[in-house]
C-alpha cells in the first residue's frame, strides 16, 4: 500500500515520499500519467460544460437522379430492353404485345384479403383500357450470345407483307414506288425456298435467342394513322428448334392478346410518357418556392453551386424538357380481357346489364373500342392513342395482392367528359324520354 494517496485527477503525482523511505538516495521524480477525465469537446459539450445543440434539420434532394438525362425519348414506341428469362421446360410462348391506350374508367369489386379491415368489402379502383387488335407475325430473328452481348445472326421474312407494315420502311409512302420486299419474296419461290430453309437451319444450329417480328393491325382501330408498329417479340420455352418452328408456323398469321396474357396476370407496361415541353425548375424537379418578396422571381433555385469548381454540377436542378420520357412501369394486374364489340364486355355476374366497354360518347380523344382490349389496374404512361408495349413480368410476384383472384362487380361506362351518370343509351332514353323524332325504319 502506498504511504501517500495518489491524486489521479492531477496530471502528475510525486513519488518523493516513497523514495525517501527507500535505502536509495534519489531526487524526486515526476512521472506523467494520462488523465482519466473525458474531453468535454468530444462529449458534445462546450468549454463551459453546457451541451451543444446539434442541427435538427435534414434536406433530401428534390427529384431523382436515376432518370437522367431528362430529355425527349428517341423513339415513340416503348422499347423492350429486357425480356423474361427463358425456361426450356415450359411450352413455347410469346412474351410481349403492342396495344393502344384508349382511356380510363373505374370499377367496383369485393376485396379478397383475409386479415385486412377491408376484407369482403366493396372498394373502388381506377383502371385503364388498352385496345389490343390481333398482331401479325411476319418474320423471325436469331441471336447469338457473344462476350459483348447478343448479336443478330440472320433475319427471315415472310413471303407476303401487308401495305400497313411496308409503310414503316418508307418516309413518304405516297411518293414511293412501293417496291419493298418484292425481290425478297422471290426467295420463297426460287428452288422451293431452299435459301429460306437454309437460313432457318442456321438459326436452329447457332442461335440461342429467337424473336418473332410482328406488327399491329392499326387499320382495325379508330386511329387515323395507317403505318403499323413493328417490334421484336422474344419466344420463350422449349428448345431452339421448337422456337423456330413456332415462329415459322405463325408467318402471315395473327395472334390475339388472350394467347399471350391471361386474367389476373401481373405484367409490365413500357411506353413514352405525356410530354409537357419546356418547364421551369419548380415544375420539373419539385424544388421549394422561394419567399413571396424574392427579387427576380421565386420559382427558382437560388444557389446553383459553389464558386469552385467553376461549373454547374449535373446534380443541380435546372429547367428544361419535362415529359415525353421512356418509362417502364411494373406490377400492372390484368382485371379483364375481352372484345370491345361484345355487348356484354362490361357486364359482370353482379351487374347483368348488357353494355360494352366503350362509354357513352366514346372514350374522350380516342373513340370506340371494337377490338380486343386489356383492362389493367391503375394508370400507365402515355396519352390517349399512344402505342404501349405490354410485356410479361420479369419478376415472380408472390404477394397477396398479386395472387388475389379479382372478381369485378361493376364497371363504369358513363361518359367521362361530363357529369352524366347514365351507363347505357337505353337508360338515358328511359330517363329523359324521346327528345327527337326518330326516322321510321323500313
TrEMBL record:
GO molecular function: RNA binding; structural constituent of ribosome
Gene Ontology annotations of biological process type: translation
Cellular component annotations (GO), alphabetically ordered: cytosolic large ribosomal subunit
Chain intervals with Basic and acidic residues compositional bias: 36-61
Entry keyword set: Ribonucleoprotein, Ribosomal protein
Chain positions covered by the region annotation Disordered: 29-65
Residue stretches spanning the membrane: none
InterPro entries, alphabetized: L3_arc_euk (IPR045077), Ribosomal_L3_dom_3_arc_sf (IPR044892), Ribosomal_uL3 (IPR000597), Ribosomal_uL3_CS (IPR019926), Transl_B-barrel_sf (IPR009000)
Top-level taxon: Eukaryota
Pfam families (alphabetical): Ribosomal_L3 (PF00297)
Family note: Belongs to the universal ribosomal protein uL3 family.
Name of protein: Probable RPL3 - 60s ribosomal protein l3
